Amino acid sequence: MASFNSYVVFGVLVIMASGAVMARDVDPIKANNCETKMTLHCVNEVFTSIFKTGIVTDNCCIELIGLGKFCHDALIKKTLENPLFKNNDTSVILSRGAQVWNKCTLVSKDVSPSPSPY
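Structure for Prolamin-like domain-containing protein, as requested:
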């Protein structure tokens, strides 16, 4: 009976350990639905302003702030991991990403919701 209990304990430990390993492999972008929180138009606008040259409109800034800083940073990092972008200067891209985020936080503060008529 003691050996049966040992197998049960061992089985539980294996299941717990595999769960811990799987938890580390969760993609934070998918886990936070980062890919679905902005329109494709605004994704392209923000991407172009960070990785190429362009501006982000006020409407897309509002969407970016709605996306959240975590998703913004995670998407930039994920893009930089792509072999197509290996020749980009990481410090320049991260700086542009921060500039876009800071600009958009100012825009979102300027755009206040309409006062309620009630």
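Confidence is low (pLDDT under 50) at residues 3-22.
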